[in-house]
């Protein structure tokens, strides 16, 4: 398992691929192209998928390609990175609703091949263990991620303090994330305080990883992730231990990077 390799002291020094594009729309196009290439080269791919504002453009382009060019997604299996707990799954801010709105209702991925943690599960630990079991039966071909707001550097809902070998689990949401996510909840009483998320260890087991970041609000986190020390203080920095990770950034998100070509 890859995680075992990371426990050794720096035997593998990888240089993430960093793609810096002029605009956020270029990031959408690049991400959609990579997604489509993956599906065309291996129609029964297993993908880890993100939510949030960052991948909305990518999903829009995928839907367009499905409608206009008949992109077939019928053999795909998908695992979402995370979901709020506890929230009705049909709440407009749930990630189940997000995925319906942005992708699933428009394309032909069979419902039995899509996986999202159940935001209504009575016990989040049992639900996390169930999700972990389904996920680890598969080999994820490509994990697509965003990065958290501000100084969180989270991937999935793996906030500060998350270990490199963490697994699918219940995670409380940190204050910065709660603050940003509050925009999606007109009624503040509905804001979930926790989540069920794939762990860093799960994410690192994907064959390939692609992290997307757009806008100046992500610039600090991207600089910390790629040029700061690797560790739990910036969970996304653990991606630098992966041999095949690509950071796809617009110029705004990349503006604080000193080294523009290598993130080691
Ligand atoms: P965002 O969220 O795309 O809405 O910025 C990303 C994340 O929190 O992982």
* Order of H and E elements: HEHEHEEHEHEEHEHEHEH
Number of helices: 9
**What is the rounded distance between the termini?**
22 Å
CATH architecture group name:
3-Layer(aba) Sandwich
Give the bound compounds. 2-phosphoglycolic acid
Q: Can you give a write-up of this model?
A:
The chain is α/β, with parallel strands linked by helices. It has a single domain (2-6, 16-254), classed as Rossmann fold (3-Layer(aba) Sandwich). 32% of the residues lie in helices and 16% in strands. The protein contains nine helices and ten strands. The protein has helices at 2-7, 24-41, 56-69, 95-102, 124-136, 175-181, 200-204, 219-227, 251-254; strands at residues 17-21, 46-49, 77-80, 82-85, 114-115, 142-145, 169-172, 194-197, 208-213, 245-250. Helix 2 (24-41) packs across helix 3 (56-69). The longest helix has 18 residues, at 24-41. The two termini are 22 Å apart. The relative contact order is 0.19. The model has no long low-confidence stretch (mean pLDDT 94). The structure holds 2-phosphoglycolic acid. The site of 2-phosphoglycolic acid has 7 residues, from loops.
């Amino acid at each position: 398992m890859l995680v075992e390799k990371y426990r050794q002291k720096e035997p593998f020094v990888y240089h993430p691929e960093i793609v810096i594009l002029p605009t956020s729309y270029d990031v959408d196009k690049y991400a959609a192209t990579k997604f489509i290439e993956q599906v065309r080269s291996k129609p029964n791919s297993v993908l880890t998928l993100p939510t949030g504002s960052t991948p909305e453009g990518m999903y829009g382009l995928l839907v367009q390609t499905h409608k206009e060019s008949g992109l077939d997604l019928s053999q795909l299996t998908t695992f979402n990175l995370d979901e709020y707990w506890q929230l009705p799954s049909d709440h407009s801010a749930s990630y189940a609703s997000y995925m319906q709105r942005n992708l699933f209702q428009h394309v032909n991925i069979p419902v039995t091949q899509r996986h999202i943690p159940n935001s209504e599960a009575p016990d989040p630990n049992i639900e996390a263990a169930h999700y972990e079991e389904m996920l680890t039966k598969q080999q994820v071909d490509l994990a697509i991620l965003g990065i958290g707001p501000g100084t969180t550097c989270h991937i999935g809902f793996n906030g500060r303090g998350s270990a490199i070998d963490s697994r699918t689990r219940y995670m409380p949401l940190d204050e910065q994330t709660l603050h940003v996510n509050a925009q999606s909840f007109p009624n503040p009483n509905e804001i979930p305080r926790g989540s069920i998320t794939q762990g860093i260890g799960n994410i690192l087991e994907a064959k390939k990883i692609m992290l997307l970041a757009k806008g100046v609000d992500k610039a600090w986190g991207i600089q910390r992730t790629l040029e700061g020390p690797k560790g739990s203080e910036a969970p996304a920095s653990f991606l630098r231990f992966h041999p095949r990770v690509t950071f796809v950034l617009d110029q705004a998100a990349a503006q604080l990077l000193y080294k523009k070509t290598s993130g080691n």
